[in-house]
Fold:
Amino acid sequence: MRITRSVAGRRLRAGYVATTGLTVTALLLTGCGGSSDSDKGADADGNITLTVADFGQFGYKEAGLFEKYHELNPKITVKEDTTAEEKNYYPKLLQQLNSGSGLADVQGIEVGRIKEIVDTKADSFADLSKTIGVDEWVSWKAKQATAPSGAVIGAGTDIGPMSLCYNRELFEKAGLPTDRAEVAKLTEGGWEDFLALGEQYKKKAPEGTYFMDSASAMFNAVVSSSPEQYYDASGKPIYEKSASVEKGWKLAAEAASKKLTQGLAQFEDQWQAALRKSTVATVVCPAWMAGQISTYAGDANKGKWDITSAPGNTSANWGGSFLAVPKSGKNVAEATKLVKWLTAPEQQAAVFKAIGVFPSNQGAYDLPDVKNATLPYFNDAPIGQIYADGAKSIPEAVLGPKDGVIKDSISTQINNMEQRGTSPDDAWDAAVRTIEKAIG
Structure:
C-alpha cells in the first residue's frame, strides 16, 4: 500500500510526526560525490538530470530530499515523475521493461509486485548488493528483492509494521479501557481475543457504531503475520490449504456473522465518511494507516484516537516499496548513488518525520526522529517505539508473483459476506473462481 497523493493528505501531513529536528549535518554526512565518468547522460558541463518514477507518496518531495541532494551535488538535478495510483503505474512499468525503453533512472516497485519482478525481470536491473548495505535492512525486506543469483535489485524504502488504531472516545462510551497498555493486554492472545473484545464493545456500543471498519483488513493482518501465506517456497500457490488463510477467513466470517464490522471497503468514500463521523471503533493499522485516519477523520477528531500494539505476539507487515535502477539507464552509477542516499537511515528518518511511513533501514530506529517520535493526533502515541517493536517481530514470509491478486479477490468476497450476507462457503467458492481465472 502506498499513500495516494492528495491536497488533503499533503495539508494534514505537514508536521505529521512530533520529533526532534533532523539536522543538516546528519544529511550532509551521507551526501555523494559528483558525476561519474561511467555515466553517459551528462551534458557538456558535466550536469546530470536523474529521473525517479514512483507512485502514490514516497515522501521525498515532502521531506525536501531532492532539493537537499542537489545542494550536496550541484551537478545533479533530480526530477520525480509520480503516478497517483500504483495500479496504473505497474502495467506501464512492465510495458517499458518489455520494450526496453521509457524507463526512468530510478523506478519504484511496490512490495506486492517485487516477487514477479525478481522472478521475471531481475536481469533488467542493476545489482545493488554491494552498494546499499543489505545488512542494514530488516532481513526479510532485503530477501524480498533478492534474485536466485544473489543480486539485490531493489533498495528498501518503507515497511508497514502492524499496530491497532482505536477510537478512545467510543471505547469509553462502550465501557472499555482506553489506556493503550490495557487495550494491548486484552488482545495479547491474538485475533481471537480481538473478536472477543469486539463482542464486549457490541454490548454497550453507541448507537450506529461498529467495532471494526473491515473484516478484510483483519484477514490481511492475520495472513501477513505468518510465514506461510499464498505461495510455498517452490512458487506454487497454496492459498486453498494455507493455515493462515484458513484462520483469517474463519475469523473474518465470524466477524461478519456477528455484525462486528461495518463492512466498508477501505479508502473508499463511505470508509472516509465513517472515520469523519466516528462510526468505527478500531482500524487495523500498518504504520502508514495513521496518516489515512488523521486525514479523513479530520481535525474534529484529533486526540480521540490512540494506537497500541497489534493483537498477538507476532506482528505483520502490510505495505512497503523498493527503489530499483534499470541497467538501460544512461546514469546508472549516479542513480545508484542516489538510491543509496535516499534509503540511508537519515533520509528514511526524514521521510518518516514528513509523512509517517516507517523506515526499513534499521539504522534509522535509533535516530531521535524515529526513536522519540510521537503522534499528537493519536493522543501522543509513541509510534517510533510501537512500530520498531513491531518491525522486529515480523516473520520472514514467502511472497508470490500474484499475492496482490489473491488477496484482493478474497477481500472482495469478505466484503460480500459483510454487506450482502453471502454465506462463507459461497463467498469462498467465488473467490477461488476469480483467482483461478487470474493466475491460471
In short: The first strand starts at residue 48 and ends at 55. The chain has a mean pLDDT of 90.
